[in-house]
Every structure is written in structure tokens, then in C-alpha cells.
Amino acid sequence: MKISKQLLQDAVANSILSQTQADALYGFLQQRQDQTPRFDFTHVLYYLGGMLAIGAMTLFMNLGWETFGGAGIFFISLLYAGIGLKMSQHFEARFLSIPAGICATFVVVLTPLAIYGLQHWLGIWPDDSQYREYHRIVHWHWLYMELGTLAVGATLLWRFRYAFLVMPLAVTLWYLSMDLAALLNGTPVDWELRKLVSMYVGLLMIGLAFWIDIRSRISVDYAFWIYLFGVIAFWCGLSLQHSDSQLSKFIYLCINLVMIGVGVVLVRRVFVIFGAIGAAGYFGQLAWNVFKESWGFPIVLTLIGLGVIYLGVFWQKREQQLSEKARAWLPQALRELLEARH
């Protein structure tokens, strides 16, 4: 529920709050809201500018930088990193946590480029691959860049404590899993192995995110980005598995339904979104492959949909009572997490 100034004025009109209390509360909430990511013009500008700068040093890096040579790439990266750190400290001193976190994240994403330049400068780069392939191709020799990124990211996260800093760490963990598979299995990595690695690493990332969620339940949401990339890795690896068995496809549906339930309980939309896409895909393949000529399938599916709506009505009426009974069986830390998220 969004608390607006008008709602507080209504509370004053109903003698729930005094005008002084309403003004003080509104000022407090406004100050807290300024430090929380939200969809408004100011924050859109923050993230647009940050993602342009981050994208320029990652996804949109071109061969033009190769002309600087290894030493040039290394020292230019250090210069950019110094500017990013200075800006982060500047914004931090003015209590502007969103731009401060974005600038600190910019420093983290520069780390693999700096290590790439250093390796070229020292003459220890193993082949003729370029940095722009880092985000597209699996190679074992990206490991040094990834380990360095994790080290720098963890250091800056310890120093600044901004949740956005977890984003490049989550992406790097995903990359690291694929490149470790390349190291252990040989290059190129078998496509089937990549799908399995993605699925199991995604599960591990979800478990890590849940542990972080429990630990940070009364502070900043550090788990968001790890949940996001963990779910993406797990769901993509799962959904790309091939099977001609309807039983395995039904198990796939059940997993997606469990994801939706987990997302609702933990208030994590990423589980609900990907779970809903997976469930829709299952019913789509039923309509296309199994019940292609059946006139009754749309009717049955409609009845199931209406039944789900009725289940939602039933849950809404008894949500408080059922939730309290269910939470009574949970550990204290998990109960506090659910209460904080709701």
C-alpha cells in the first residue's frame, strides 16, 4: 500500500494523527523513499545513465579499444575506476545512495577489462580472443577475470553496502560456472552439459540468495539480484531440457507451479513470472501436441482457470488466518523474513 500525503491528511481529518505528526511522518517517509529504487523520472535517469556507462564497458565494447594495447587498456580502466570511486564517495557524502551504488557498480564491471589488459600487457593471454567475446562465448581463460571481479565486488560491497553492487557479482557467478565447466570438460563445452550446469548452478544461487535473504531480512535487500539470475539460470537450464515423455513435461509443470508458490510466499516476483511462463508453455504444448483436435480441451482448461480464480477468492477471505497458522510452524528467522517482505 502506497502512503500518500492525502492519506495522512485523511488520518488527520479523522483525528487519528495530529497535523504535526502527519507532517513529521510524511517527511520521514519521503526521506526513506528517496533512498529506495522506484519508478520515477529521477531514478529512471539514474539507472539509464548508469546502464549506458556499464554497457559501454561491457556489452558494447568494440575492437577499437584493442588499438590501445594491453597497457593502454589497463591504465585507462584504472583511470575510469578512479573516477567511478570518486563519484561514488561524492554521492555517498550527500546521502544519494542510488547514484553512489551505480558508480560503485561501474567500478566492478571495469575489473574484467582491467585484468584482460594486464594479461595482454604481461604477455600471458593464451589465444587471440578479444574482450568483447567475454559476455558471449564460454572460455576457460576468462576465469582470472571472473575471480578478480568477485574479489573487487566483494570488497566494494563490504565498503559501500549498496544492494546494486550484488548485480555484477551474480552475473559473474553465472559466467564462472560455465567457464569452470569449460575448464573441466574441455572447450568447446557440450550444449547438454551447459544446460545441466546452468540448471544446477541456478539452484545453488537460489539457495545462496535465500540464505542472504534470511541474514539481511531487517536491512537492505541484498538477495534480489542473486534471486534474479539464479532463477534465470535454473529456469532456462530446466526449460531447455528435451523430453518426449508427457510425464516429464508434467513434472516440469509441477516445478513451475512450485516456483509460483515460492514466489508468492517470499514475495519474489521473478519466481512467479518465470513459473507462469513455464506453466503457460506446458498448457500450450498440450493444446498443440496432445489435444490438437479435441473440442473439450479448451472447455476443461477454462474450468480449471475459473477454479483457480475461486481458489484465489477463498484464499483472500482466509489469508490472515491460514498464514498465521502456517507461520507458527516456521523457524523464527523465516517468520521474520516473511513478515518483513509482506
Would you tell me the overall average pLDDT?
Answer: 81
- Helical fraction equals over 70%
Number of strands: 0
**What percentage of amino acids are in beta strands?**
under 5%
Distance N to C terminus = 11 Å
Uncertain segments are: none
Q: Structural class per helix/strand content?
A: mainly alpha
Shape: flat
Query: What would you report as the Rg, rounded to the nearest angstrom?
Result: 24 Å
The succession of helices and strands, N to C, reads HHHHHHHHHHHHH
Largest sheet entry: none
Write the layout of secondary structure elements.
Elements: H1 5-13, H2 19-34, H3 41-56, H4 69-93, H5 97-122, H6 143-160, H7 166-185, H8 191-215, H9 224-239, H10 246-266, H11 269-290, H12 296-327, H13 332-341
Structure, explained:
The chain is an all-alpha fold and 342 residues long. The protein contains 13 helices and no strands. The chain has helices spanning 5-13, 19-34, 41-56, 69-93, 97-122, 143-160, 166-185, 191-215, 224-239, 246-266, 269-290, 296-327, 332-341. Helix 8 (191-215) runs antiparallel to helix 9 (224-239). The longest helix has 32 residues, at 296-327. The protein starts with a helix and ends with a helix. The mean pLDDT is 81.
